[in-house]
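Extended Data, panel c. Modelled sequence:
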Amino acid sequence: MRRSRVVFRIILLVFALIGLGLPSIAPANAAKPPPGGTGGGSGVNVKIQGFDKISRSWTAGNTAGYAELEKIPFRIPIANGSTGVTVDSVETIYDHERTGVNGIETLQDFVLCKGSLTSTWTPTAPGANGLCTTVLVYPAGTVPDGAEPYVTDDGFRAGSGGTTVGVFTWHRLAIPAGATWTLTWGAKLALGSHLYNGSALHMQIGAASVNGAAVTFGSKDVPIPVNAIIATETDKKINGSDGPVPVSLGDRVRITIVAKAFGPAKASQTLVVTDTLPACLTFDGDDATVAGTPTVSGKNVTYTFSNVKNGTSVLAAFFA
């Protein structure tokens, strides 16, 4: 795999000794369905859109302006007709890997909104107004109790042209007559995705079922041009070392991650650096001697740096 502008200087022996993972921070292309648009199935009308960072608008066309490790907002508005329906399931499919290079790492932050669509994106109104609630994600095949909507992580499967795609499926969407429900989520770009083997990554709608019967919502696909992905460079150290770092039970280690932004001169971007700790380690506080305060959720330690000028670097540092 080419390593242009992507630095991985942590060798595998580090993982064996302390179990730390890396931070989650145009060849021939297979035929893909045409971009988004509307389409119906059993009285409902759907479309898929991405939030283009350059134009600051929702679009069914090219979605661009994002750096590796950033999450691209997507939404599927489902407009119901004159009678209530239940969308039993609808797949969201993303290009994950091709020829050894990851494109979209995963999907995260599933939110269901029951209000009018918005022209912009904010954390509290991620594509729609009204009541917006987080939707829980379960392993494939799980059917949780109750009547609330849920999402399953259905893993990976073979796509077209040698692509491995990932699938998350929304379930149990009981939409009242005349209502529009909007499914929203973030597609996280993998580190090194600017080297993806293809002209574009794709986020698309897959198989669906409405009122107990399989339906088609048509070929709906939002492309993410690979040449528009901004490369990110990272360098992770443990106790200041790139090499093996033996530790004992009760030891405290200092983890530093340097991330560099790439892109057009005089422009800036937001860098999000996430490190996932293994089961044997616990977050033990941030390093107050450097800028930045992390958010910690379980084993995930996340730093968000805003307005980082392209060509400059930021430093995340914490203890475990």
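Residues 1-40 have pLDDT under 50 and may be disordered. This feature is highlighted in the accompanying rendering.
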